[in-house]
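Q: I'm writing up a methods section and want to include an example of the input and output format. Could you take the sequence below and give the corresponding predicted structure tokens, formatted cleanly so I can copy it straight into the document?
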Amino acid sequence: MNVTEQDTETAALEDLAARLDREKFVVSVIGNTGKRACLRVSNRHAGALTEVVYCIDGWYRWSWGDKIGAVADLDHVAKMITHVLKIVGPS
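A: Here is the clean output for your methods example:
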């Protein structure tokens, strides 16, 4: 991966991070020189509900490689992450 691709992917992850509700989630973009950046998202009220998201070839992907949605569809991707990391059960 070249520097331009890495910068593009990191910027896309930062855009996604900005769409997630900071009242519900702890969000951090993790970038390492020479390694692919990722977005770590944790439910603020249930830390075990944590996922890592990557941006690869114009797609946001879960850590296991499945596509979440296209980079161009930030609202859909943010909704999917919110759905996966929500607390389910009696209130």
